[in-house]
């Protein structure tokens, strides 16, 4: 291990985030798996992890080497050390909840499904409160408060969150425009953004190209960008003014939107409080 090799998991994640655009396609697959499933990496074998990430076993070794480690085992120690030092993460808690419930996969009654979804969402919301910092929230609200107008983009699954954001902002008398791409005119709608506006982009894996086009157009014009996404190495995170990484509940490959909607609600109501506070401040002579 050289002096430049990451000494902790947080350092490794920051390095991965920085180097992600320069990695090959297969190494990016490993990078995304590493960020999403650190507990699996901590105790998994190369053979099992390769199957889960959809890559050849040698790719894990190349990935470790590319970040200065002599091999996979040396890199894996960072994940094991982190797991011992920190409280169980979201995925670990999901597993513990399943064990406690004694989930019977053959039981797919409506009530059982409701119980599984509600329990998973409770854990996801608890995790949201733990990972979103006060500084991030305050910075996002400040950006929103200073903007002349908010433009919101999100397609497919993310459209639900984007449309709610537009609805909530309009209800606190803010100019809010949903970039819906009617007629395929995402670029044309993005061209209306002004540097005094703000763009809110909501995008989850596999990160819709339409949302990326609008976000990149905004960034090129110097428009502040608030992102809600599901991974630190999302293509939008690197160009965001403020980036919120949200881990949603997932049951049988069905992903919820509860945490993202709660975050959108908190930002909207927080903005309303901030604007009210500013109106009450005495004018400086």
Automatic annotation (TrEMBL):
The keyword DNA-binding applies. The keyword Translocase does not apply. It comes from the Bacteria. GO terms for biological process: carbohydrate derivative metabolic process. SUPFAM superfamilies: Homeodomain-like, SIS domain. CDD domains: SIS_RpiR (cd05013). Residues 140-277 form the SIS domain. InterPro entries: Homeodomain-like_sf (IPR009057), HTH_RpiR (IPR000281), RpiR-like (IPR047640), RpiR-like_SIS (IPR035472), SIS_dom (IPR001347), SIS_dom_sf (IPR046348), WH-like_DNA-bd_sf (IPR036388). It holds the Pfam family HTH_6. Residues 10-86 form the HTH rpiR-type domain. Signal peptide: none annotated. Transmembrane segments: none annotated. Keywords: DNA-binding, Transcription, Transcription regulation. One of its GO terms (molecular function) is carbohydrate derivative binding. Gene3D superfamilies: Glucose-6-phosphate isomerase like protein, domain 1, Winged helix-like DNA-binding domain superfamily/Winged helix DNA-binding domain. This is RpiR family transcriptional regulator. The lineage of its organism: Bacteria, Pseudomonadati, Pseudomonadota, Gammaproteobacteria, Oceanospirillales.
